[in-house]
Here is the input.
Amino acid sequence: MENYSGAPRLRPAGTDAEYALCCLLYGLLCQATGITPPWGMMTGVRPVRIIHDMRAAGATEAEIRERFLGHFACTPEKFALALGIADLQKPVLDAADPMDCSVYAGIPFCPTRCSYCSFVSRTVGDKATRALVQPYVDKLCEELTAIRKTADRCGLRIRTFYIGGGTPTSLSAPQLEQLMAHIAKTFDLAKLDEYTVEAGRPDCTDAEKLQILKKYGATRISINPQTFSDQVLQNIGRRHTAQDIIDCFAAARAAGHTNINMDLIAGLPGDTVEGFEASLRQAIALDPENITVHTLTLKRASNIVVEHRAADYADVAAMLDKCSLLAEAGYRPYYMYRQKGTLQNLENIGWAKPGFECLYNIYIMEEVHTILSAGAGGSTKLVIPGQRRGKIERVFNFKYPTEYIDRFAEILDRKAAVEDFYARYIANASSAVTFVALAARHPQELAALSETHYHDQIESIADEVLAAGHRIVMLTGPSAAGKTTSAHKIARAVAARGHNSRVLSLDDFYIGEGKYPKNPDGSDDYESLEALNLAELHSCLKDLYTTGVCDAPVFDFTKQQPSGTQHIDARDGVVIIEGLHALNPALTEELPDDAALCLYAGLREEYADAHDSRCLATRDIRLCAAHCAGLPVPRARRGVHAGAMGPCLRGRRPLH
Here is the structure.
């Protein structure tokens, strides 16, 4: 491409037309604005992950450098930052065991809502929210018990535990003690490498709560000032002073906490470069073990964006330059991530004194191992054992505290997907070997049992769908688990009962080839939510909810492009919307909370050998176990059903 004055020099585009267009557009924008972004053309959350993945694939250090400086047009400073973090993380990644995992527990409550925040949290100042807190804590304890049992059955080793929010210390002292005591009783804390609790804000964190955290085993806490300017604190909606933060930190030290993190945010409304430097110096003076520096991100659900406040953001790049003070004070950057909407397209960095790096932050950001998540809005991330660069599956909890409490049984049902996931990838688990041997002696009986059970589940769910009275049914399940087949079988069962029924696949909402987001290796990421045309999907869902009718797109998989429309008429009936992201809250965020019936299909992945023979699936193992033990075969529970033994999927390895 032509080298525009003021734009960075990029590597030749070669025959890659998409990359050539990106280079051209990037160069024009750099020239027109006079701005050269320090991360160049790079998009995505995890720059450091690219280095780990390239090293794992055998790339040389020179090739990695060329990828950042030439392909992405990053500045040498940003590449050096990412490379240093990758080098520091390497021993942690090398020590990871395939059967490691971590646990996250979320507390979706805060004293007040900060103006920059978009997390799903409720303020505990109003009476209605206070009434939710105790039942929420009760259910959270119950879910954590279930998670511990699941981890044990899957043979997982829990490495770290993290309680976040929201603000966990917005719980009352008795409620916080109830939660912490339950965790101490349920989990073997002595075997944890790290146990973090976000103490968060000084306006709800007192000496009593800090002592509770210490008493019940927390090894790391966060006290997050965001700024030490009283005026900026007021600007973002905080109801405390900088001195309150200093006093809270002193109380934490007095309670015996020896590993404390403090968060700062660069670019808060009304802050200045000089003001941020003063906050940074104050944090360093307190001498915490970690200091995390975030760059303000303008999120669409935050009050800053919703209220259309006038921009009043100083030069955040100049603010981040002041982080050299952290290096001078002995802190090292150990993890990093980026977000869409971050001011000046910059980054968030965790700094730590040597030996105090937060393991959980590294694990979750570099997707090292499975994270089992509890609480409202939780998203369990399942990482294939030994394949950190493989596909990740997710299990979503309900987003809002009221839903979490009222539909808690469904959350426990969804967690069955964790065991299904590990059963698919651990062929030599002792229990699986035992049940496979039993099944081999009675294959016809097992097959008949499986088919009968599946038929009963479909019939039970059809009754459930009609009894619920919802026009829209959202159905998901693990990848390659027969969601589409089961959706059509449920629809036929509903029709057999005299009701109109249709099936709509989320695949029809693909945006099309050339528009998909990219994986770190440059391939298309079909499984990302951003691969769907969400605007069109929201429109269809609203039409179905209000009128029962919509014109939905049709995706042509031969052309890999949308092609035409299909008329969906769900009046006096139901439409089943199936797909990997069907239970993602982003799909139904523009509908009332109770607009759709959500079903998680805990299905069996089908397996076939090279001869297309029918092979044993994980659900069959469970049925076989129950049958051989003389136990009743479980009936369908709300929102859960088993998968069909339909056409085998070629290329799947059989479970031995």
Summary: Residues 127-154 form the longest helix (28 residues). The longest strand covers residues 157-165.
